[in-house]
Amino acid sequence: MKLPQSIDAVVELLAGCDYVADRSLATTLYLSLRMGRPLFLEGEAGVGKTEIAKVLAQGLRRNLIRLQCYEGLDVAHAVYEWNYPRQMVEIRLAEAGGAMDRGAVAQNIYGADFLIQRPILQALEPHPSGPPVLLIDELDRTDEPFEAYLLEVLSDFQVTIPELGVVKAVEPPIVVVTSNRTREIHDALKRRCLYFWIDYPDAERELEILHRKVPACSERLSAEVVAFVQDLRGQDLFKLPGVAETIDWATALVQLDAMALDPEAVNDTLGVLLKYQDDIAKIRGAEATQILNRLRSDMAAAKAAGG
Amino acid sequence: MTTSLPEVAAGGRLAENIMHFGRTLRAAGLPVGPGKVLDAIRAVEAAGLTRRDDFYWTLHAVMVNRRDQREIFDQAFHVFWRNPELLEKMLAMMLPTVRPEVPAEQEPLSQRVAEALGLGRGDGDAEQRVEELEFDMTMTFSDNEVLRGIDFESMSADEIAQAKRAIAAMRLDLKPLTTRRHVRDSTGERVDMRATLREAMRGPGDIISLERRRRRTRPPALVLLCDISGSMSAYSQMLIHFAHALTNDRDRVFTFVFGTRLTNITRHLRHKDVDVAMAHVSEAVDDWSGGTRIGACLHAFNRDWSRRVLAQGAVVVLMTDGLDRDTSDNLAGEIRRLHMSSRRLIWLNPLLRYDGFEPKSWGVRAMLPHVDEFRSAHSLASLEDLAGLLSGTAATKEMERWRQAI
Prior knowledge:
Chain A is of the alpha/beta class. Chain A has helices at 7-16, 23-35, 49-60, 75-78, 84-96, 102-109, 119-124, 144-156, 187-190, 203-213, 219-233, 243-255, 263-273, 277-283, 286-306, and strands at residues 39-43, 64-68, 80-82, 115-117, 133-137, 158-161, 165-168, 174-179, 194-198.
């Protein structure tokens, strides 16, 4: 499928896949597609960074190649690895066959046939449906040496294999890099990308996200859930709930057949929303009731003003 | 609908103005080089100039690459591209060179942006500054907090010599972390197949000898939290000198100071010259020798920084006397949280120099159960001990004794 030709088209593309995006994000994404630059997304956990890549792959009908980063991730797991057993067998065969020319054998065992492709090399290969979407997820979890290795991939979309030469993508993949900022990524890498910080959504957008992601959730419940979560984000908590948590919570409440928020339901399901015991202890009980009362009176006031 | 602008970018004023805008940002401290300016021009060409917010986000995408640069960018953008008709005029290529001016009704610009735009500060600004100062003072906790930069030159010659001697003698030897990366080693426990095959192809012979590798190690990150309140003032200067030496000696050292609020001084300590670094620090920190709110500062650290600096097995060194003025804080809870997220939590307390020190005070009793080591930090000798302590060889029996004392 062809790339979107305007910012509005990007907004539509994302909306078509149930991703409700800010126009600012759509602008950055559009530029990334048009200029062939990797997109670097930072933000708190659960604001939909990874989702962007998935939605992009789905909307453009491209393959999604995902590289989950972790500490110690190396070239053998991220880019390529030689098939050592096959190489050993090949050497034995060559020796058994009486071939004494080591140069020829070496040439042979370092051919493309003996190469095992890992995600990054796969992403540089031609794909029948067009260049794939390469998601490099949670880059901050890996260490600086790997980050440095990525520089060549992200700026020139090529990989240098010492024994084989340079592998360059005919058509560069669409690259999305995400980071939770558990450490600062080096500027050299960010410079090669277009940067965007994803914030928590405002109430209006979060409500729309909830409508799309949890259609079974009633109008009233959705509004209350969103108001509650928005209020929580103003509290002094160790980990604020992200959009993912809002969706999970709404789903949980629907499963429990709740029609509206009440203190009991909130207390029972708080673990879906908050992931630290300290935070849960702080909100459970009196604080939750207070928030509920606050949002009830706000909603009543809004209704009175509207009606 | 987008407007294609090759001719504008090539010969018009837009490209020129984007360049000037880039230079403004650079002067304000954002890393915007010529490469980024070219990218920005290309990006504007790609996105078109139909909407002001699109234009904003287009430049943002290229020129900003950290969350904390957004505010600077935002202010610079609104001043530089202030005139709403500017873009239309640019399209018509009739634009006069943009003269940045500060609109009177706007909120005060950050100092960096104002300086970058070459604006002098008028009398009105001076008034504004006074107001800010008063506001700051009412917001701070301590009633005797002094808003002044501390003069490191007033340290006695003896003190300086002592601190420098301690620092020079210090070779911090933290117990290294085993990483998941490998390095070639003939006595390693794993076979390095790639190297083995490469060697095998090198010379004749029927026997392939196995090359080996082992796990690589690296020193863990070190986070220093230093109390600079009044009761610590005799030591905090020395400890910050110490932090400076560590920062320039090794990778991954993060330093924070706290009195009534927490300040990250890592960036300032990166200056090689100790005097320059100290000058920057005293400028950046404005709660020298005031009161202490350990609980609140640890809370700020846990909330804003712990996830960013403690992620990769960091050792935390907390330097404080534990005399918290604010007993309403959840000090025990915060220190517990800090302990849980660090690999090792070491508390250096200068009060330990007194032989008869008893863990009586409220703060000490709250904190002591949650630290891995509790040591003194008042003299050359005690700082030298730190090396052994950080390498993890120090006895834990002492810790048992402290735990029983409370």
